[in-house]
Specification:
The structure holds two protein chains of two kinds.
Chain A: H1 2-9, H2 11-37, H3 40-43, E1 50-55, H4 62-69, E2 73-78, E3 81-87, H5 92-96, E4 103-106
Chain B: H1 3-17, H2 19-24, H3 27-40, H4 51-63, H5 66-98, H6 100-115, H7 118-129, H8 133-157, H9 161-169, H10 174-212, H11 217-224, H12 230-261
Classes of the chains: A alpha+beta, B mainly alpha.
């Protein structure tokens, strides 16, 4: 306990605690912000898997494709968008959570593109 | 005093007053030299980019979410591996240090495996566990383990027998002698072992990420070679150095100061 008080009492300790608090606040913000990026029609999808288009503010790279592969099958990329198939509705928030995702919408293009 | 001298004096006072500035000050000539050589065009810019290009790469990779995600992966791997290494290493070190029988049994084995470097394990680990988190965690735990164990043994064995005999003569049971005499006496060495172990673990993690990883700062640097992205490689190196500086200077040194230094077990 004394060690913890000494840690909090030091300037470095306070900076570290503030940094951890900022990190937690940022994560909380991302969690709260995620549902707003999902199109309303996807929220009404029920239990069945959905095909979605994820929009980014930049052309997707391998890193982004690998991230989305955790949630479904990446069918292709198109300028600033990634087409993702077979996403469970419970995973939609995970898809929308990264700060570099701007929009998650139903896939409107022809399949197999 | 000339204007330049006054500016220098103000700069020196600011350096002395603020620890953050004091820590950064030695890097200023280094960065200036780097920027100067890059600006002079002695080497092609694609092979030797300047600090500004590296800062821009930092901004670009952060904007795309790549750097934060990889940094988080590396830090989590180090934390998990180091915690496991310490959880095994400190009790094992105490046991080997306290018990003659355990020492006779374990010491040759410890020395044998210490000689087999972490990277030497990678071929067999890849066959056993594949390219994944288990392989990397094993490498970090293995790397952290030996400095922690060997330093803990050294610490336990360097506790004065007079202190132990004094505690025994006062009627202290073995558990209290261990907790109140041996462990505090061994603590300077344990903390040294932790600092060394974490440092080696950090290096081992980067090497493992380069060879078996699909994410992390080591992977970022190794992957950047494919496109000849020297800026990303330099950025990775700077992130590694900064992160270790923060871990050591902001966590391990204060821990050492709050424990063994405050107790007078070591002096600066």
């Amino acid at each position: 306990m004394r060690l913890w008080r000494a840690f909090i009492g030091s300037p470095k300790g306070r900076v570290l605690v503030a940094a951890v608090a900022c990190y937690c606040a940022w994560q909380g913000y991302l969690t709260l912000r995620a549902p707003g990026k999902i199109a309303p029609s996807l929220r009404r999808a029920g239990d069945r898997a959905v095909d979605v288009t994820v929009t980014l503010p930049f052309p997707p790279e391998r890193f982004h494709v690998l991230v989305f592969q955790r949630f479904g099958r990446v069918a292709g990329t198109n300028e600033h968008q990634v087409e993702l198939r077979g996403v469970r509705p419970s995973d939609l928030r995970g898809v929308a959570r990264p700060y570099w995702v701007t929009r998650v919408e139903p896939l409107s293009r022809e399949p197999g593109r | 005093m000339s204007r330049g001298g006054r500016v220098l004096a103000v700069g020196l006072r600011a350096t002395a007053a603020h620890p953050g500035v004091r820590a950064f000050a030695p890097f200023v000539p280094l960065i200036a030299l780097w920027a100067g050589v890059a600006a002079a065009g002695l080497f092609p810019a694609v092979f030797f980019p300047g600090p500004l290009e590296v800062i821009m790469a930092f901004g670009r990779l952060t904007y795309k979410g790549i750097l934060p995600a990889y940094l988080e992966d590396s830090v989590v791997r180090l934390a998990v591996g180091a915690a496991a290494g310490m959880a095994v290493g400190i009790p094992l070190g105490v046991l080997v240090g306290v018990s003659r029988r355990a020492h006779a049994l374990c010491w040759p084995i410890l020395l044998f495996f210490q000689a087999i470097g972490d990277i030497a394990w990678l071929p067999i680990l890849l066959i056993w566990f594949g390219f994944g988190l288990t392989t990397m965690t094993f490498v970090i735990v293995y790397t952290v383990l030996f400095p922690v164990v060997l330093n803990t043994v050294l610490g336990v064995r360097s506790v004065s027998p007079d202190l132990i005999r004094a505690a025994q003569s006062l009627g202290a049971p073995r558990r209290r002698i261990l907790l109140e005499v041996i462990l505090p006496g061994a603590l300077p060495n344990i903390v040294t072992g932790l600092r060394n172990g974490l440092g080696y673990g950090w290096r081992a993690l980067i090497a493992a990420e380069m060879i078996v990883g699909t994410s992390g700062i080591g992977f970022l640097m190794f992957d950047a070679r494919r496109g000849g992205q020297v800026t990303e490689i330099l950025l990775g190196m700077i992130v590694l150095g900064l992160l270790w500086y923060l871990v050591d200077g902001w966590l391990l040194v204060p821990l050492e100061r709050a424990t063994v230094e405050r107790w007078g077990l070591v002096t600066r």
